[in-house]
Design a protein that fits this description.
mainly alpha, 5 helices, 0% strand
């Protein structure tokens, strides 16, 4: 019953979203139609602005208050490369730690955990190592597609 309720709620949210979008578009077109009927001629720039309004810009005070800053070109590339390297280095450490805890029973150090728990820890450790290292490799490789900064790679930036 809970599964059906979830899918019904999901369908209701999606239908409401589509309905709202449709009614918003319908109101825009109705406004343009009424303007054309009233004036006879309409400025194309005004129609374009009515149909596709520009999103509001953040005020500088709000940006400063929230601590939002514009990233320099190449900064996101640098962040992705750093996090990729961190994950590639830390992945084996996390996996080896879990596998080492799992190996304590077969080696005779820890008889308090069951054999099933021991094998599960070893498998999870190996899986975590593979997953985290692959995520790091993916981030590092994906950073190649981001634009480079104005300075060459490896140069420090002056703030």
């Amino acid at each position: 019953m809970a599964t059906a309720a979830f899918w019904i709620a999901l369908a209701a949210v999606l239908i409401a979203g589509f309905w709202r979008k449709k009614s918003t578009e319908q109101m825009k077109h109705e406004t343009v139609r009424l303007l054309i009927q009233k004036d006879g001629t309409v400025d194309p720039d005004m129609v374009k602005e009515l149909l596709n309004p520009t999103p509001p810009e953040w005020r500088p005070e709000t940006r400063i208050l929230l601590g939002v800053k514009r990233w320099e070109p190449g900064e996101s590339r640098r962040h992705m490369r750093i996090w990729g390297l961190i994950l590639m280095v830390a992945g084996p450490g996390v996996g080896v730690l879990l596998a080492a805890i799992g190996l304590t029973r077969p080696l005779g150090f820890n008889n308090e955990i069951t054999a099933g728990d021991s094998s599960t820890l070893i498998a999870v450790g190996i899986g975590m190592t593979i997953a985290v290292v692959l995520l790091g490799v993916a981030l590092y490789c994906a950073s190649q597609f981001l634009p480079k900064g104005p300075k060459g790679e490896g140069e420090g930036r002056i703030t």
